[in-house]
Amino acid sequence: MEQKLNAKGNPGHPGMHALNTVHQPSQHRSDGGDPAGLEGSENGHESRRDIGDILQQIMTITDQSLDEAQAKKHALNCHRMKPALFSVLCEIKEKTGLSMRNAQEEEPQDPQLVRLDNMLLAEGVAGPEKGGGAAAAVSAATSSGGMSPDSSLEHSDYKSKLSQIRSIYHTELEKYEQACTEFTTHVMNLLREQSRTRPVTPREIERMVAIIHRKFSSIQTQLKQSTCEAVMILRSRFLDARRKRRNFSKQATEVLNEYFYSHLSNPYPSEEAKEELAKQCGITISQVSNWFGNKRIRYKKNISKFQEEANLYAMKTALGARQGDDSPHTPNSTGTICKRRCCGFHFSVTQSSLHPVCVGNLISCTSELTVEAQVSEVHKGCSHTRAVAPRPIAPEACILELV
DNA sequence: CCAGATGATTCCTC
DNA sequence: GAGGAATCATCTGG
Predict the structure, then answer these.
(1) Which of A12, A47, A68, A95 has the most Cβ atoms closer than 10 angstroms to its Cβ?
(2) Highest mean pLDDT pick, A95-99, A225-229, A295-299
(3) Hey, CA dihedral for A261, A267, A272, A278, is it positive or negative?
(4) CA A265 → C1' C2, Å?
């Protein structure tokens, strides 16, 4: 307000000439109020006329050509009343709360953005380039077992794709940051420029910058979201690849089958046995469990289909036992198994159903014998016949049957 | 290409 | 939590 008093009566003011050239009749002059507090003096009248002129010019500024407007703008900027008017405008703005528009306090950081940031960091897209996510994914794959040698190829493929995503992400982020900075600078310059003709406080400029950042932040969120999606898709593909079923090696299947058929009465390996089998087959314990689960159910569903296989493994085991070479994969294939087997199965004279020792007997027995005779012959020297006795032997059912 | 084999997964029960 | 059953998805051999 002090400026208003200083601004009175200065015909030599550089702006006056310009103003006078566009001088309009002061029909809007006095409305009875005295906003400048100058009523009752010559200077007061002059000031009011000046204010009226200025307001009139402001009101008509949009109707004029750009050159004309620029000229008037310059004139206004240089007018001796400008500081006083400006100060009044500032005061009114403060009082009416206009300056508080959009003055919400700083929002806390967007939780979604935080989540995305964390995810990108965990996946090795953001942050230092160390391939943390890839390493994590690979380690997860390795720990789940069953990683074939060519998984390293998948790994490198994953890494290269991840690095592509990373590079695109950083390029786009850089572009975004650059655009944001440029736009912010531009707006700040505009506001600073405008602050010469209208009341724009530094705080308002800060707020405007915050608004711009918020708007740009949504773009950044989209970028991060897209990147996350890309990484998730890549990761799921990689994990799918990891899930790819690969048949066990022949040797592994052999080991598992040997155990299965030599423990047919109780094909449920203990934890220790599973561990041992897993070690021998180069697979995981859970894969051993899966294999036995599948085998049991499939065997039970179609025993006849597995008869051949059962015969083969029984023979193998028998030969091994005959040579006094107990299979290392069937550490318990001694007489105790025989007893369990006798309790668990209907015996027939087919070798598949027999204890290894008895299979040896079968080889030397003749097919002309009756079933009873064969059983008797086959189980010569062992307790199987006695164990089998409570169960009826069905000659046509030359299969093992789980109780 | 297709049917069957097979390893893995999911859901359910005990 | 282990195992049974059903199912999926992939592999394999003809």
Answers:
(1) A47
(2) A295-299
(3) positive
(4) 18
How do residues A86-114 score in pLDDT, each as one tens digit? Answer: 777 777 777 766 555 555 555 567 777 78
**Domain limits for position A43:** 2-96
Q: Is the CB of A293 under 7 A from strand C?
A: yes
* 8 A C-beta contact, residue A321 and residue A357: yes
Give, in Å, how far the C1' of B13 lies from the CA of A138.
35
The separation, in Å, between residue A299 CA and nucleotide C4 C1' comes to 13
Give one word for A146, left, alpha or beta, with left for phi > 0 and alpha for psi -120 to 50.
left
- Between CA A55 and CA A85 the distance in angstroms is 10
- Asked if residue A394 is part of any domain, the answer here is no
Q: Out of A120-134, A147-161, A361-375, which region has the weakest mean confidence (pLDDT)?
A: A361-375
For chain A, helix, strand, coil in percent to 5 are 65, 0, 35
The reply to whether the CB atom of residue A186 sits less than 7 A from any atom in nucleic acid chain C is no
The residue behind tokens 């599948």 is A294
A236 domain residue, yes or no:
yes
In contact, A63 and A32? CB cutoff 8 Å: no
